[in-house]
Prior knowledge:
The protein is an alpha/beta fold. The protein has helices at 41-45, 55-64, 85-94, 108-116, 133-139, 146-158, 176-185, 205-208, 215-225, and strands at residues 9-14, 23-27, 71-75, 98-103, 122-126, 162-168, 191-195, 231-235.
Amino acid sequence: MNKPNGIKGFIEVSLLDWDGFISSVLFLPNCNFRCPFCQNWQLVDEPEKIEDVDWTIIENYLRAKTEWIDGVVITGGEPTIYPQLRLLLEEIKKLGYKIKLDTNGYNPSLLRELREEGLLDYIAMDIKAPFDGRYKLASGVEELEIERLKESIKLLIQGKVDYEFRTTLVPSLITAGEIKEIGKAIRGAKRWVLQEYQPKSARNEAYRQLKPYKKEEVEYFVSLGKEYIEEVYYRGKWR
Ligand code: SF4
């Protein structure tokens, strides 16, 4: 029988990847973006160097832990370009789990389909910058079709599946001005999470030198975000 393959990572138990949930996390290879600050760039640039995790191991674990694990997080890389995504989601659903999908939002039609098929319970979409040339810099994609991102945003805001938008606070890309612009662009959204920037494992050397924002700065960004979005909070360590 056809089973998902090429899964590149499996965390059995995580308290960090789905707020309020005890989750297992699956990492999928490849991405259609090349964000200079990407933390999982090995999965994107050289997935062939990372050993596959056999689906049977994941399946057996999840089958045995239904009392303990609340849900499964699918992340990457960019899950929506993984050819067996639907199959993987169906297999997890058969085991009785809720599913959270992390995405860069570049495939609105697939998001719509998967959501309508009842395969997603939570969607976390990145908003990397305001929707102009700065998004090209943040995503590393020169020919970026911004409309696709806007379509995903609309889809999430108007849909019934729970979701969050999330923005990593990369100091060279996100300042108070960008927070205001993004806030305006996603006005009406339910939840916006500002995420800690972790320079150590960034793809580009220059981005490894950046210092994450301090507590007062992050608090200020959160207060700015709340002018546009009701629920805004920070995810990360206070510095
Ligand atoms: S979209 Fe995510 S996985 Fe893809 S390059 Fe950007 S940060 Fe990395």
